[in-house]
């Protein structure tokens, strides 16, 4: 005979306590703790909202449809987490950096694991579309000393806002992706194309929600980086174009002040020739600072 | 040019404010309010839990799978709402009753709209399986005056814990369902079978979660009622068997103290014959009190 009577039956006033008490036999302490917080916050939200039965059912159907649109290449729940700022919050919590280290931002869904390692200076834009861009900078430790042998994995959307994996058969394979390794001076440089803002997938439940909330689905133009070096915490981040029309309203809240780069337009043909590009081009200089692994 | 710079970029400290500020152009004030509460409580929960990236992804996958197992006859998100006490909380909020009126509980997934209207006293158990039960009582207003012409829609699981709709081809159609109407004295009576506890569907993500939390999936034995009468608030509720082994641990928190009935075993053959049943049988007497519609 199971007796949980010490907690009494469900009442509006005690609702969360009654539900939480049921989990007292959970073997996994972490799961128990997580479900206690979720239950309490969920009940607080319901009590504050006081949904009608119809509103409750609309929420049930939204959650159901958000799950049902997911497939091997589409993850609508990650999108929901993104547009509610939850993905960025989880990223922030897991990447608290010591003062001076570069800040992280979300990985996003378009990273591929097997991009080719390229000689420094390569042009990752394989189809020559768009406005040329020269990207360069240094990988440093928090004492501003260069990190040699750092691995830099970069990827970006093209001049129309699409990644290669979204346009298979249209863009060349591994277009606008590359892996580079720094020399003794910690420098990196490569050529690409000025990226453009693009919408997150907005034809599903999350897109409809954004629309109903008066929000647009765009992410401002950015370049993705994963920077790794032996003995340092890996850094997953972006750099952003501060002149992008959506720089202050990224649909997924990925922008941080410290990740704004300068996309400097260079008209000088000689400067362009020096880096193997035709003028005009965009010069983007950005240094990354890695934090040393603890312990 | 969209400028939301007044709220600044996303930071861990300001996370919910930054997200909520984005909804300021929402046309639907209610949606805006609901999403503000949800966003704030969600961020509070994440900050309290501090999930790892792996835990966050496990949550994403749980939500996805909960949506994907839903189909025309299975609603796993309602089940999740049920086992977290949210369904009962929404029911409580929407059915606050004046003192003296009968309390409501969840509708559940097994009500059918077109059950037959039967003469008072009918036996709703069409296959004669299980221990006979005689159910009777009165429909009253809050001044204890009988309500004539009240419609009573009842349904129940059989002696093995299954509803007819779960056992099509095994149980007769409309087995253990009926609609009755009270006479001038507000009385109702019908014959059925002693119900048994049964599990909610536990082979999906919600069942796995219950298991991980050390919780069983059972609902204690009960009879469902919807009582309606002109000029009164409709009442959707259950009555429960207080001797059921799960009476203090209903998986969906539906039990309320005021909804415990007495299932009195009667051995007397004469008493049984009087109500058209063979002894032994269970006598269940329960009155319902409806609240008068406001306005």
Q: What's the short version?
A:
Chains A, B: This is Hydroxyquinol 1,2-dioxygenase. The structure is a homodimer of 295-residue chains. Helix content of chain A is 25%, strand content 19%.
Q: Low-confidence parts of chain A lasting 5 or more residues at pLDDT below 50?
A: 1-5
Report the CATH superfamily of the largest domain in chain A.
Aromatic compound dioxygenase
Task: Give the helix proportion of chain A (percent range).
Answer: 25-40%
Distance between the termini of chain A: 50 Å
Beta-strand proportion of chain A: 15-25%
Instruction: Characterize the largest beta sheet of chain A: strand count, sense, and whether it forms a barrel.
Output: 5 strands, mixed
Mean pLDDT of chain A: 95
Order of helices and strands of chain A: HHHHHEEEEEHEEEEHEE
Q: Give the structural class of chain A.
A: alpha+beta
* CATH architecture name of the largest domain in chain A: Sandwich
Please state the oligomeric state of the protein chains shown.
Answer: homodimer
How many β-strand runs of chain A?
11
Note the main attributes of this structure:
homodimer, Protocatechuate 3,4-Dioxygenase, subunit A, metal-binding (chains A, B), 295 residues, 7 helices, alpha+beta, globular, Intradiol_dOase_C (chains A, B)
């Amino acid at each position: 005979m199971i007796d949980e009577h010490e907690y009494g039956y469900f009442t509006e006033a005690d609702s969360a306590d009654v539900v939480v008490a049921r989990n007292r036999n959970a073997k996994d302490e972490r799961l128990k703790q997580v479900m206690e917080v979720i239950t309490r916050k969920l009940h607080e939200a319901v009590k504050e909202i006081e949904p009608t039965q119809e509103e409750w059912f609309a929420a049930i159907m939204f959650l159901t449809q958000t799950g049902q649109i997911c497939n091997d290449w589409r993850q609508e729940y990650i999108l929901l987490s993104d547009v509610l700022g939850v993905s960025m919050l989880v990223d922030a919590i897991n990447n608290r950096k010591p003062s001076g280290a570069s800040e992280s931002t979300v990985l996003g869904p378009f990273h591929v694991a097997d991009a080719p390692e390229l000689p420094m200076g390569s042009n990752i834009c394989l189809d020559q579309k768009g406005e040329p861009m020269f990207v360069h900078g240094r990988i440093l430790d928090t004492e501003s000393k260069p990190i040699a042998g750092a691995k830099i994995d970069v990827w970006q959307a093209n001049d129309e806002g699409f990644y290669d994996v979204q346009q298979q058969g249209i863009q060349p394979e591994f277009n606008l992706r590359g892996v580079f390794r720094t020399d003794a001076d910690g420098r990196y440089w490569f050529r690409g194309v000025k990226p453009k803002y693009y919408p997150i997938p907005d034809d599903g439940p999350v897109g409809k929600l954004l629309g109903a909330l008066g929000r647009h689905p765009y992410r401002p133009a950015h370049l993705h980086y994963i920077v790794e070096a032996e003995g340092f915490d890996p850094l997953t981040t972006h750099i952003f174009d501060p002149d992008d029309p959506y720089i202050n309203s990224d649909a997924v809240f990925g922008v941080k002040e410290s990740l704004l780069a300068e996309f400097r337009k260079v008209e000088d043909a000689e400067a362009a020739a020096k880096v193997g590009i035709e003028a005009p081009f965009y010069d983007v200089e950005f240094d990354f600072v890695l934090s040393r692994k603890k312990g």
